[in-house]
Every structure is written in C-alpha cells, then in structure tokens.
Amino acid sequence: MGVTLGELAARFDCETRGDAATPIDGVGTLRNAGPGQIAFLANPRYRRYLESTRAAAVILAPEHVDACPVPALIAADPYLTYARVAGVVCPVPAHEGGVHPAAVVASDVELADDAWIGPCAVVEAGARIGAGAFVGPGCSIGRGAVVGEGARLVARVSLCDGVRVGARCILHPGVVIGADGFGVARDGQAWVKVPQLGAVVLGDDVEIGANTTIDRGAIDDTIIGNGVKLDNQIQVGHNVVIGEHTVVAGCTGISGSSVIGRRCMIAGQVGIAGHLEIADDVVVMGQTLVAASVREPGVYSSALTMDEARRWRRNAARFRQLDDMAKRLKRLEKQAAADTGEKGDG
Amino acid sequence: MGVTLGELAARFDCETRGDAATPIDGVGTLRNAGPGQIAFLANPRYRRYLESTRAAAVILAPEHVDACPVPALIAADPYLTYARVAGVVCPVPAHEGGVHPAAVVASDVELADDAWIGPCAVVEAGARIGAGAFVGPGCSIGRGAVVGEGARLVARVSLCDGVRVGARCILHPGVVIGADGFGVARDGQAWVKVPQLGAVVLGDDVEIGANTTIDRGAIDDTIIGNGVKLDNQIQVGHNVVIGEHTVVAGCTGISGSSVIGRRCMIAGQVGIAGHLEIADDVVVMGQTLVAASVREPGVYSSALTMDEARRWRRNAARFRQLDDMAKRLKRLEKQAAADTGEKGDG
Amino acid sequence: MGVTLGELAARFDCETRGDAATPIDGVGTLRNAGPGQIAFLANPRYRRYLESTRAAAVILAPEHVDACPVPALIAADPYLTYARVAGVVCPVPAHEGGVHPAAVVASDVELADDAWIGPCAVVEAGARIGAGAFVGPGCSIGRGAVVGEGARLVARVSLCDGVRVGARCILHPGVVIGADGFGVARDGQAWVKVPQLGAVVLGDDVEIGANTTIDRGAIDDTIIGNGVKLDNQIQVGHNVVIGEHTVVAGCTGISGSSVIGRRCMIAGQVGIAGHLEIADDVVVMGQTLVAASVREPGVYSSALTMDEARRWRRNAARFRQLDDMAKRLKRLEKQAAADTGEKGDG
To answer: What angle do CA B231, B232, B238 make, to 5 degrees?
Structure first.
C-alpha cells in the first residue's frame, strides 16, 4: 500500500527529516532495502549499515538522525514504530466471507456472514465462528468450539470440542488447542486414563506459534490471558493459567496446573514444573528449569553455557565430587583456623 | 450420565458416608463443584478446600471423611477411583459407524462396519480399520496401516505406510506415527539418505499426546508396548523400544535404538541418547540428560534448578574453574598433611 | 526389486566374497535378516551378530570378511554403501501424475504434468509445483509457494505463502514452513505484532522431519542451504541461515537471526540463542546451550550427565555455593602461602 513518509509521520505522531513526500510502498532491512522501502534502526549491532543504506527512508531514534543519508522518521521507540508502519504498508490481505465448497460445516454452526471457512476445513456441530474470522485450509473445529471475531486460524489448526478462542487471535499451522491433558492414575502396574473434562479459554489478541499445543483442563479450564504471545512448539499442560501479556519463546514446556503471572518473559526451552506459581513480571532465561514457585519479579536462570567439549568434560566430572569438595574445604578451613589459634568460620 | 452415589460405590466397591441416593451427573473440583457434581481429594495441597466445598459428594480417603461436609465416597486411592467414576459419569460420546462423504477411502480398505472415517480423512490402499475405531477429521492413514479395535484418532493424525496401532489406542491431533527416522550416511561433505524401511508397532491401550512423533524403524520396527502413555510433543527415534506401562511427559526426546524398560516414569524435556538400555522401573527427573545406559531401577537426575540470574552467573562462571579448583584443593590438603606430619588423604 | 550381489558390487564399485549370483530382494539387520535380505556391519557393537547371521549377504569392511559366514559385499564405508544399496533394493515407490478429485487447486497454479496433488491437499493461487513433485494428502500450499522438482511432501505439510522448496526436498508430516516468526514490540504493558514479511527458501536435497517448524523471515528470508538435514520437532526462528550439509537432531531450537555454518552437526535438544554466528564444521553435543557465537570448528558441550537423584541433589545444592567456595579456597591458599613464607598464587 502506497503512503508517503509524511503520512506515516502524521499517523504515528513522529517527526521527519528530509522529504516528507517520499513515497513508501514496502519495507526492507537497512542492508538490503531498495527504492520505496522503509527500514529501521533499533538494534545497535546494525548501526554500521546506516551510512550506506539505500532505503527510501529509515525509522530511527533522534541520536541517529544526523548519520542517516536518506529521509528519516524519528521515533522514540523505532522498533515499535516500525511494527506499526509495517502493519500499514504491508497489511494482512483482506479475505472474503463464505464457506469454500470443499469445507465441511455442520448444519447448526453459527457462522458470521463475513467469516471464511477454507477448503478441507471441518467445523462440527454447535460451533460458533465470529465476524470476520478466518478458518484456513485443513482446520478442524470441534463441537461447540468458539472462534472469536476477527480471529485467524491460518491452516491445519485443531480446536477440540468446547475450546473458546478470543477476538483477533492468530493461530499458526499445526496448533492444537484442547487435546486431552496428561492425566493417568496408577492402577497396580498399569495406568487408568483420567477423563479430561475442562476446556481451554484463550483471551483476546493471543498469538500462538506453529505446532504449539495447549491441553484442555482436567476439570476446570486452562486459561490463556489477553495479549499472551506464544512462540512455536510450546507445550502448555492442563489447567495452566497464563496471565495477560506474558510472552513465551519456542520449545518451552509448562506442566499442569502452574499459574504464570502477567507480563512475564519466558525464554526458549524453559521447563516449568507443575502446580507452581510464578509472579508477575518474572523473566526466565533460556533452558532454565523452574522447579519451585517464584514469588518475586526478577531475572532467573539455571542454564550453563557451553565450553569446548574436552575441557567441559573435565569440569563436569568434578561436578560429581562437589559435595565432597565442599566438605574437604571446610575441613581444611577448620584445621587452618586451629593452626593459627583462631576459631574456624565453617 | 446420571447415577447415584450408591451406584458408584457398588460399582467400584467403595463405602459411602451420607445419602447414598445423592444423584451425580457431573464432576467438579473441590473448590468449584456445584450441585450434582462429584469432586475428589487426593493431593494434600487441596485439603484446605474440603470444608467449604459445595460438591454433591467427594471421593476421599478414610482419614478425611470426618471433615467432609457433604456425602462421601470412601476410597483407598481417591485419584484412581475418581478416574473411574469420571469415566462413568462423563463417558466418551459414542460415535456412529460409516464413512463421511468428504472422506477419501481406497477401494480395498478393510473397514469394520461400526468404524467411523471422518470428513477430509484419507485412508490409502490396503489399510485395515478395526471394529469401533474412530478416524477423525483430516487424518491420513497410509498404505497397509492398521488401526486396532476401538482405537481413536481424534483429528489430523498421520499414520504412515505400514504402521500398526493396537486396540483402544488414543492418538491426539497432530500425532505422526511412522515418518522416516533420521538416518543419513556421510559421503564426503554431503549426506546420503538411509532408506527407512521398518514400521512402527503400537501395542494396545497406548495413548499419545498432541504433536508427538514416533519414527519408523530403519530396518526392524519401532515398538511401543501395551499401556504406554506419551504426553505431547515427544520425539521417539527409529527403532526405539518402550516397555509396557511406561509413561513419558511432554517435550522429551528419545534417540534412535534406545530400549526403555517397563513401568518407567520419564519426566518432561528429558533427553535420552541413542543405543542405550534403561532398566524397568527407572524414574528420570525433568530436563535430565541420559547419556549412558541405566542398569538399576531408581531415581535419576541431571538438571540444576534456577537461581536469581546475577547470583547464578557468578556460580556458573566458577563451574569452568571446577577442575582447577579440585586440583588446588588437593594440593592444599597435601601441604596441610605435610605440615602436620600426617599423610594427606588426597 | 531383485538384483544380484554382483550387480550391486558393480554398481557401487565394491568387491564381493562368495557367490556373486546371490539374489537380493530386501534388507535386514544382521540379527534378523532372512533369505534374500542383505545386512550390513558398521557399528562395532553389532559385530557379535556376524557369525550367526542368516542374511543372504553382508556389507562390511575388509577386516570383517573372514568372519562372515555368508557372501559379502566389501566396502570401505559399509554404512554409506548400505544406504545406497537400500535405495536400489527398496526404492521409493513411483507415483502417478495428476490431481486427486478431492484436492483443491487454484486455477492459476503452475503444475507439472507428472506432479501429484493428493486428496484433501489445498494449493492456493500462484503456486508452482515442479516436475515429479509429490504433494501428499492434507497438505496446504500457500499463495505463490514453490515446490521444486521431485520434492516430496509426504502428508499434512504446510507451506505458507511465498515459501520456496528446492528440488528433491523431503518434508515429513506435520512440517510447517513459513509461519510467522516470533516478532513483538513492547508497547507499555502490551505487545504489538511485528508483521513477518520475508519468506523461507529451502535449497535442494533438504530433508525435514515430522512436525519441524521453520519461520518466515521478518523482512529478509530465512535460508536453509542445500543438503541440510533436519530431524523431527526442530524449531528454526525467523531469518536463521543454515549452511549447506549441516545436520540437526530432534527437538533443537534455533533462535532468530542466527547463522549456522556448513557441515555442522548439532545434536538433539540443543538451544541456540539469537543473532549468533556459528562457524563451519562445528559439532554441538546434546542439550547444550549455545549462548555466544562460535568462531572455531570443534566439539562443544554444556550438558551435565545424570546421577542417582539423591547424590545429584547433594552436589547440585553445592553448586549454589560455588562462588563462595572458590573465594574460600583462594583465602586458604593465601594463608598457606603466608605460613610457609611464600607468596600465594591467587
């Protein structure tokens, strides 16, 4: 969509430097942008590409304006402004309403006029599809499931029976919402399945990455708050509650019945044990194991970072002697204290 | 389904306290259950909700009966009894038999009369679908694959060619059984694919969580024993063997050709290297790396638990000095021993 | 497909021992192979099965020929030769060309005559499907996506809009290529989605395991080099670049904008942080966290291996005292040095 730099500035309340009539019809990186494309500078590691950029314009912070060889859109938070500009310049294509002839929709489904059900999608009895929603090819929507207004199920998404998806949610291909949680009760040497009878409720403006899975509650529901953003291949167990505006990176697993606060930032490959409570505004670093509740906001970690393997193995072997080393250290301290006639601090 | 407390007691050989005629037509949690709903008390952390519960009845151990304000079903193992009660009160809905008009079933498929093939499911040549089986929307069943009696493929499950699924198995959406294992042979700088020619055999009563993948064997088959329960997003490599009644939690990866014993309990995000043997009755804690065979039953772990990040980093930095520290400690011990005229124990 | 041992030897430039007319029509393991099946010996742990094998013939290295009780195909690299032999003896079945009546293909799709579009596959406007390509049941191919010559999308694969898949690629069920990357910009307490406008480009001869996901670039493309092999359930973030012939094992996560070199071998459950560079020929061991760029080829690790849990916990508890221990050790060394009239080395 073609706009001018000045129109973007007016829309997002920014100042410009250079020709406000510069036409913008695409986006690009500082390094690769060409005619008509607007770029941005947010991460300092890309500063070195500014002087030589051939972008039509650059979104940047005031301190970089003088170094910018092309027109600029000056923003306090260039990344946030870029996000908004890109949404205007490259909008999600509108979709038509209706049901593709190769879709299968039960007769009693409540379907808004301008919602779209794509080819080979299956919508079962009692489901409700809200205004402007998009159900892409190959999706399966279970009995009584609800898709909110303007929600977008890109392709091959499964909503199991009774799942409720809020307004403007985006679910990427392969997402599964509402499969049975992992509930088994031991019966001697074997296991009996515990029926999983709750649902999943997604708030509004939730985005869920490809192949992420969120299990239905065992009895009560699993709940994902408004504005939560989940990356790809995350596993969310039954009866988890995730607070509003929390973001979680890929491959993280959250075990059943844990309650995550609001505005948390959970990195990738984190493991969160079951039945825990995590406060608001907690940040967890990548690959961390969260095995106990977190009562205070802060930054938490448990991952070691790698080393050359031979050196690593030497240190790792010592890890198994650590308790022994600690005791020997204390013994030496006592002996040293005795030698000097002082009392040891051990 | 409506039953009375007394009928449940008779069926599961329990005693009741209070009115055995209490009608039960649903389940609920101690905290949230209302009229007609039966709750249970198993995990002591929920004991505090007992006194104020408004459930119609509660399944609990004898020691909690006196504190229960409503009728009770007294069970030695309340969680197991709950699992069975819930299966009676909230049964899986029966399904009809037949083939949906939007399903695609090859002409020579052997299909039991009361099996169901859902819309947009594809069943290829030579497959066999057992009595009462349910093949949900969007499933793909490869050539010669077998779905056992009463098995349930919820939706969008893929069975590749020749895969065999036992009786009463439950496969949740996104499950892939029998994709090619990861077999490549180095050829100079590149790799040659090693054809994956075995199959996968699932025993009876296996349950497999959403988006879990089990690769076909390279030559012989990958084998999952009776009663195995796998959570979501687990990866099982080619030629793995999992013994009967073993349970595995989400996001765990099991590398090729490893043999896991019976009744093991493997937690989430565990990594099991290839070509290992793990004994029966082994328990592995979350995020553990299993890099060697485990010969004895027991509980095993390798995961560190998190700390505040700044403190964590100080300790983690020392980890790289651990071997050096161990040597210095030994040196000090020797010196101390020499000083006191004793021989060091190092 | 039936061949003789001698024909295989001629084709792959190997020598034989024993009857070159031995007919081969299948493969088997040393332990389980029967009449007509050729086995191989590569991993020394299976050497013990050689003497008693009932295979029709065995592919092995020269040093094992004398111990082989059946005809042999002598190869410098038996595993590589096996891979090729198996490809001849058990070829991928040829497929016909055409569009299944239950597929949905947009009118302007460019479709090679001998390509196959399976039942319930959906191919959207502007896509191009190359000669001999196979698009299996339930796949979704987005607008303008390209499937290269001879590529095989086994079943239920999603290519999002504009994704390009090279020649002879193999994509297993559940693969998602080109879903939106995880891009959000903070806006006060909430997050704004950053439109993901790049594509994904897969080179030739790439193989991608079941339920692996590769996100589209934010602005520029995500790029997977020729001959890359990815196992199951791998997550590749936006704008990642993976060099030619690199192999990655299951459950690994690669964060956005990281650049992986050529011929790397990344094991399972590895986590690679964002914006890193990894040199060519780097080997990373299982469950390692790669939190910094790797400039030199070599073998790297960060994972601890498990121990019996009680012993493990004792050592893990000491980990939190490690920095303190290091300081106390240094203090003792100083004191010891002072005692002996020397200067400490601390």
So the answer is: 85
Residues of C in contact with B278 (CB under 8 A): none
SS3 assignment, position B87: helix
Q: How confident is the model at residue B345 (pLDDT cuts 50, 70, 90)?
A: very low
Mean pLDDT of chain A: 96
Checking if the pLDDT of B346 tops 50, the result is no
| Model confidence at A293: pLDDT above 50 | yes
CB-CB neighbors (< 8 A) of B90 in chain A: 195, 197
Q: What is the pTM of this model?
A: 0.96
> How many angstroms separate the CA of residue A221 from the nearest CA in chain C?
24
B322 phi, psi to nearest 5 deg: -65, -45
Buried/exposed code over C8-34 (b: 16+ C-beta within 10 A; e: otherwise)? bbeeeebebbbebebebebbbbbbebe
Residue A12 burial (10 A CB sphere; 0-12, 13-18, 19+): middle
pLDDT bin (cut points 50, 70, 90) of residue B343 is very low
Contact C147, C121 (CB under 8 A): no
**Would you call A255 and B233 a contact, using CB atoms and an 8 Å cutoff?**
no
Task: Compare CB distances from B300 to C83, C244, C307 and report the shortest one's residue.
Answer: C307
Question: Each residue of A20-58: b (16+ CB within 10 Å) or e?
Answer: bebebebbbbbbebeebbbbbbbeeebeebbeebebbbb
Contact list in C for residue B213 (CB cut-off 8 A) is: 174, 209-211, 232-233
Which of A120, A158, A191 is opposite residue B173, by nearest beta carbon? A158
Residue among B104, B215, B219 minimizing CB distance to C27: B219
Question: What residues of chain C, 148 to 177, have a C-beta less than 8 Å from chain A?
Answer: 156, 158, 160, 174, 176
- Which residues, in sequence order, are CB contacts of C175 under 8 Å at separation 6+? C153, C157, C158, C208, C209, C210, C211, C212, C213
Interacting residues of C213 by C-beta distance below 8 A, sequence separation 6+: A174, A209, A210, A211, A232, A233, C175, C176, C177, C179, C234, C235, C236
pLDDT band at C343 (very low <50, low <70, confident <90, very high): very low
The set of catalytic residues of C is 238
- The one catalytic residue in A100, A238, A245, A275 is A238
Please work out, in degrees rounded to the nearest 5, the angle formed at the alpha carbon of residue C67 by the alpha carbons of C61 and C68. Answer: 75
Q: Judge whether residue A340 has pLDDT over 70.
A: yes
pLDDT single digits (tens) A228-273: 999 999 999 999 999 999 999 999 999 999 999 999 999 999 999 9
Give the tokens for residue C206. 């790439």
CB contact under 8 A, B155 and A160: yes
Asked if the model's pLDDT at residue A345 lies above 50, the reply is no
Strands, E, within A49-205: which ranges? 57-60, 72-74, 98-99, 104-105, 110-111, 116-117, 122-123, 128-129, 134-135, 140-141, 146-147, 152-153, 158-159, 164-165, 170-171, 176-179, 184-187, 190-193, 200-202
Neighbouring C-beta atoms of residue C56, cutoff 10 Å: 24
Spatial distance between the Cα atoms of C242 and C244, rounded to a whole number of angstroms? 7
Quick check: A81 pLDDT over 80?
A: yes
Catalytic residue among B64, B95, B100, B238: B238
pLDDT higher than 70, residue A342: no
* CB–CB contact A326 C332 (8 Å): no
User: What's the distance, CA B21 to chain centroid?
Assistant: 37
Given CB atoms, is A205 within the 8 Å cutoff of chain B?
Answer: no
Q: Name the residue among C79, C323, C333 with its Cβ closest to that of B318.
A: C323
Chain A's closest residue to C105, CA to CA, is A119
| Closest chain C CA to residue B334 | C336
